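>> received
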Amino acid sequence: MTITIPPALSGSSQVVTLLGYGALLSESSSRLTFPDLSNFRHVRVKHHKRVFAHPHLFLIKEGLVDPISSLELATLSAEPSDDDSSSFIAAAFDVVLTDEQRVDFVKREPEYDIVSTPYYDINRHDDGNSQPVGSGIICLASKDSDMRDIDHLHAISTKLKDKGGIWHWPCDSGLLPANIYLRHCLLAVQKAGGVAYSSFLEDTYLVDRKTTLKEYLDKHEDMVIASRPPPHLATRFGG
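>> returned
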């Protein structure tokens, strides 16, 4: 299978700035995937919304969530927003990626639209006219028709066609975060603390794009924290 590198990841420079908005908000969690990262910092991504709006494909593939019998199976994505007030705190860090590592990155995030977007300094007063301080690679929501030609993606999309496939779950579908994944994110973001943690709670939404993660956790946090991964995935989903 030939993997096409998205334009945002192409280019002559080996140094790439990545933007993470889930568990990667924690530097220690980021280093599990990118041990040689540098210049880790928190930044603001504007004109985008962070949402639990599509199924966690790895957990489905591992049999840890059942998309037929449960709605607690969503993972995070970011999507462009026409609302000027939509923004969230992300982690930015620099990594050196060889051509082989770029292919591995695309394979690891198979369903997403991998693009470049500007980011802003969280320490500067935002009067609505602030300028970006850089740009980084971010994984955005996509469309089922635009996904890479990977067999298990299209098998899941077909299996869930009546519910919304992968990327087309309606706002009133009732889709909820996958507990194992949400626990992982919470443990990681608690390590980051500060504005990253508060933004994760207040600037993350369920599939309805109205209910904040904080509102959801006010009722369900005990259930989420009790949802531990199996031993062989304890490190990967351990915050």
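>> Residues 11 and 45 are 23 Å apart (CA to CA).
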